[in-house]
Amino acid sequence: MSIRRTLTARGGMATVAVTAGLLLTVSGCGGGDDGKDDGKKPAASDQGDGDQKVNEKPSGTDGEVLAEVRGSDSITLTITSAVREEGGFVTVSGKVANGGSKPWVAPGWQGDEAELSKNSASLAGAKLVDKAGKKRYYILRDTEGRCLCTKFSVGVSPGNSKTWYAQFPAPPESTKKVDFQVGDMPSASVELSGE
Questions:
Q1: Tally of structural domains, the chain
Q2: Category of 26 on φ-ψ map: left (φ > 0), alpha (ψ -120 to 50) or beta
Q3: Owning domain of residue 79
Q4: Taking Cα atoms as reference points, which of 103, 154, 148 lies closest to residue 124?
Q5: What is the CATH number of the domain that holds 184?
Q6: Cut 0.90: pTM above it
Q7: In what order do the strands lie in the sheet with 127-130?
Q8: 1 lies in a domain?
Q9: What is the pLDDT of residues 145-192, one digit of tens each?
Q10: 11 in a domain, yes or no?
Q11: Do 180 and 188 contact (CB within 8 A), yes or no?
Q12: 149, 171, 173, 178: least CB-packed within 10 angstroms?
């Protein structure tokens, strides 16, 4: 086979591959908007940065509020999920609501460890406390010191709330209840659920 035929064949195959990719992309993006409201609420990923009104019911695994605490500046922390995950860690999640009159950016929630200094406006300083086992579990972080948690980079505006998550090493299976602590908020006791 000549070089010219090989190049022509390769060019044709590349064109077919690009066309197929574009068709798949277009077909994946279209449809569904016939102007009718199906009554479903948008998923969290469809709500931009997660900014929502304070009076909405928090949603977790099943929408149940496991714990709720109020701190200074009219901040309310709600926990809707505390789940043991495969791999030996616990994911705690919920919402933080700003009932005050000023924007809130999680002051002091990032903790005071030097390694966590790059985690400003985040939950990097959060802890799980196993009172029965007399042990504290600090937030997990990657090799560069970034926490495996939510970062409130734009804060929470007055009257709104944002969803959050934080991951910790899992306590022993015998530990069923832990206290979640962050910043100046009171401790929130939650029961851990299985995977």
A1: 1
A2: alpha
A3: 50-191
A4: 148
A5: 2.60.40
A6: no
A7: 135-138, 127-130, 177-181, 188-191
A8: no
A9: 889 999 988 889 999 999 999 999 999 999 999 999 998 899 999 999
A10: no
A11: yes
A12: 173
